[in-house]
Amino acid sequence: MRKVELLAPAGSMEALEAAVQCGADAVYLGGQAFGARAFAANFDREQLKEAIAYAHLYGVKVYVTVNTLVYEEEMEACLAYVEELQKSDVDALIIQDLGVLRLIHLHFPDMELHASTQMHVHQEDGIALLKEYGVKREVVARETSLADLRRFCETDVEIEAFVHGALCVSYSGQCLLSADLFKRSGNRGMCAQPCRMRYTLLEEGQKVASAGSYLLSPKDLCTLDHIGDLIDAGVASFKIEGRMKKSEYVAQVVSSYRRAIDAHLQKKAYHSRQDLPALQRLFHRGFTLGHLYEQRGPQLINQYRPNHMGVALGKVVSVRRDRISVSLCADLHQGDGVRILKAKEDDGFIVNRMYDTSGRLISHAKAGEQVALDKRGYVEVGAKLIKSSDVLLEQALQAQVKARPRKVLIKMRAELKVGHVVRLWVNDGEREVYAESEIGCEAAKSAGMGKEAIAKQLSKCGDTPFQITSMQIEVQDHLFIANKALNEVRRNALDALAHKRMRRYKERTVWKEVEAIASSPQSVYPLKVYYHVHQSRQAAALKDAEGEIVAYGTLWETLRKEGIHAIKGASRVKTHPYQEETLIQEIGGLRSKKAKVSGASLNVVNASAVRFLQEYGIEDICLSDECEKEQAAAIIKAYRQRFGTTFQAGIKIYGRMEDMISKHCVIADVLANGAIHCGKCHAHHYALQDEKGRRFPLYGDEDCLMHVLSPQVRDWIDALPAFYEAGVRSFHVHFYEEEETVIKQIVKRIEAKREQLS
Questions:
Q1: Most CB within 10 Å of its CB: which of 40, 154, 398, 422?
Q2: CATH at residue 608
């Protein structure tokens, strides 16, 4: 039977215990630095050691997230943190940053590495390349289809896929919306979730009616009924999202997926209807099969509500001065969470008091009954109520975890002879321990102790996680040993086994020597300008500009036929084999022999990431769009100090930021029921508008991916000399909707700055 891993989130010690006791094979968690959930409780140094020991005792692996971008000034602290994690006995690290990956592979060669979904890998070339850097497992993008998963699983890298929980609407690692609006970078673990805010679709500046206003808010992924497809596809690890969730949520989700996985492996029937009601009571935004099954539009997005949907509870039938009367369609208990759905803002509360129709205080009521609740603010007759938390369910889940049902199965063998100490061996299938009693066995004055009495005493595992599956006892006739001695030798053996289980790894290598790279003369790089265009007319407006034109997809072919020279840029999500692409924007492109320039979407924020790209032939490296002048200068300075030379550093100085790239298209969702390649994005100008009036232009590319642009245009042209002084030599300019007159003005300004430097 093929072993598959159920991987659970642990945002707290309580959640970790819930995951372990309810059947997880591994947990992932964050320490207090460099994790992509900066606002989870996370674990400090001592808590982390405790968590790892607890998980390992039960045979559960622990993966720690080091999956943020790490700026140059933080790199030393990051490596010290990784060394501490290795000493703490973690099983693997989950990495986003290419520079961090490179240095961990160099300095910690024994550490197992997993590539985070934040690394934005979505095809075989990227998977193969990361294997060269020691990556054992790839956490594929949530946008991956089942057909793609099957292909990826044919590689010799383990594939981890999300099976349950919240979905990002943007490709992970490619979302700058939170950083753009709130200066809280999702790539740095501080996402403010602007995708869960209200938006209006604009067509040619006019509002378009939609079913709801949460146009970027996906439902939650739930694959319980399809887990067999993923097992059969070859997926190695099934990942549950939810490091911000309560322990009760973790307990229920892990239990549900444990049942589904085990049923498929044992060729038994499983139906999600036995678990869905509990999952819905704990947390859901509506459920979807997501991109695994190519669901789009209303199947994927919940336009009506960005938070917990709960379950229907009833409706308000009358309103008095201090109370409301509610007709129930579900049971209600004191301590349940309730939300009254209102037009402007919902009202949520815990039920502390409720009354029957005679006004008497009661602790619970059944579906079909009518109860009164204390009135809170303005409420209208007919308002609907949902149950947002279920006190009885949560108490049952807490009790389940507290009972510690998970057991470590062991075999025990004992040898007892008169005049000798008790000898005891305990084996868990992987390791064996041996213990002796302090006192020896004596000759019995009467019948002596039989095997049954000895077995009964040695079998008392008590509060330990162990459960004996077989016991062999060799006992000499007419022998006596005190129960105290048997208890002691049993405790010593089980303690020794527990200690061995809690410490999984022996000493692992730490290579602290600095890279031996010979100094070379300072290279002199000319100033370059790259003009990225999306329309033929934009390229035509640049015919006299000094710089390279970058075109994408079929536009590059069109320009070539028109006699306009342009280098070919690869999409940020490359779905076709590489051919003529010179500028690449994701990891798989590094395997293309023609790639010489990298775009900002590779998220380069440190000198080690620069070196990573150079090792694969990239000569001109654009730094992340999240880098400003100070960060760019720090990267260039660190690179010079470390490698004795400079590199061709690039920065985006003009154009809107691409705040998102998404497989979900708002235009198709609102106007075409989620249809693929509907073509509407090419017929009119569309934008999203938030509640503050900010407008985010939208455009769809040839692969039917939606690009959400920043509401403001970045214009750092006047700072070009300062960037040049800091060591930047390549300047990227992105045109999306600009007309010919604007393009020529931009070119004129850039060329004026170039003249100042000559």
A1: 422
A2: 3.20.20
**152, 171 Cβ separation under 8 angstroms:** no
Tokens of 699: 């455009």
3-state SS class at 224: helix
Burial of 252 (0-12, 13-18, 19+ CB in 10 A): buried
Q: Assess contact for 54 and 21: CB atoms under 8 A.
A: no
**pLDDT confidence bin for 516, thresholds 50/70/90:** low
Residue 477 covered by a domain: yes
Q: What is the dihedral of CA 669, 671, 677, 682, to 10 degrees?
A: -120
CA 694 – CA 714 distance, rounded (Å):
15
- For residue 746, count other CB atoms closer than 10 A to its CB: 23
Contact 173, 603 (CB under 8 A): yes
Measure Cα distances from 4 to 130, 257, 282, 728 in Å.
Answer: 22, 12, 26, 48
154/531 Cα distance (integer angstroms): 39
Whether the pLDDT of residue 174 is over 90: the answer is yes
H helices then E strands: how many in the chain? 20, 39
Cα 452 versus chain centre, distance: 52
The first and second tokens of residue 548, run together, are: 């390279």
Q: Which two three-digit tokens encode residue 741?
A: 């007159």
Q: Under DSSP, is residue 225 helix (H, G, I), strand (E, B) or coil?
A: helix
Instruction: Please state the separation of Cα 309 from the chain's center in Å.
Output: 22
pLDDT digits (tens, 9 = 90+) for 289-343: 999 999 999 999 999 999 999 999 999 999 999 999 999 999 999 999 999 998 7
pLDDT of residue 238: 98
C-alpha span between 387 and 210 (Å, rounded): 27
Among the candidates 267, 293, 326, a domain finishes at 267
Determine the structural domain holding residue 425 and report its residue range.
408-502
Kindly state the DSSP code that residue 32 receives in the 8-state scheme. Answer: S
